[in-house]
Design brief:
Layout lengths: L1 E2 L8 E2 L3 H22 L15 H9 L2 H8 L3 H14 L5 E2 L2 E2 H14 L3 H8 L3 H22 L27 E8 L4 H7 L7 E8 L5 E9 L4 H9 L11
Antiparallel strand pairs: 1-2, 3-4, 5-6, 6-7
Helix pairs in contact: 2-5, 4-7, 5-7, 6-7
Amino acid sequence: MEINDGSENTTVTTLSDSCLWDLWHAAAFGAIGAYYASVPPVLNPPLNFRDLSGRQWVQMTLSNDKRCFDNFRMYPDAFNRLHWEIVNFHGLPLCSDNFDSMEALGLFLWACGTRQSQKQVSYRCGRTQGVVGKKFDEVIEALFSFAHRVIGPKDAHFSTVHDTLREYSPMFDGCIGALDCTHIPLKVNRQSRQHFLDRNNMTTQNVLAICDFDMIYTYVGVGMSGAAHDMAVLKKGWETGDFRHPPAG
């Protein structure tokens, strides 16, 4: 504002309160900026986190039922029974390449159940991909042997009729179970992607499963790509020696 008392050289200019407040803010911010510009930045000190080994991570996962099921798709009791079975009867080595069987089975189930790559597994356990690949081969061989022993009918000749079918005899005396195909999501490389695309444009494997009237699997056919028609999967399974056929007649 200006103040004029009528004389020629007595005009006085004053600032309003808002202008003074803005100038004060500018001066304060300038002083703060100059201070921090002159002070070297303080870096956060490094924290020494100790990475869990693969065996430690598997043991930690087994200690919690929910975490175990989320990662391994089975509860700790089932995991321990499976481990005991494939070590004692199906040739999985207890330890090789400083890689014990509990760790190998846990990481294998984690990779299969949550769609992890072998590179991610190698990061998780701190080992090379070559060692991880070798252990996965050992686990697969043991599980393949285990599957051949447990996946099958109780009576290979189907000499009796199941209790649930007796009231419908003789119409369904030759019925041995139910079959269906299901698509299991999986990851494949770019070169194979087109062959594994299913009708929903997802990369899958078309798996044929047969179960008996006690809901026990008697046959599982794998290896067919998601692009394969269900009849092609059935035909391939039909031609294998493991496929169970109804009794003659």
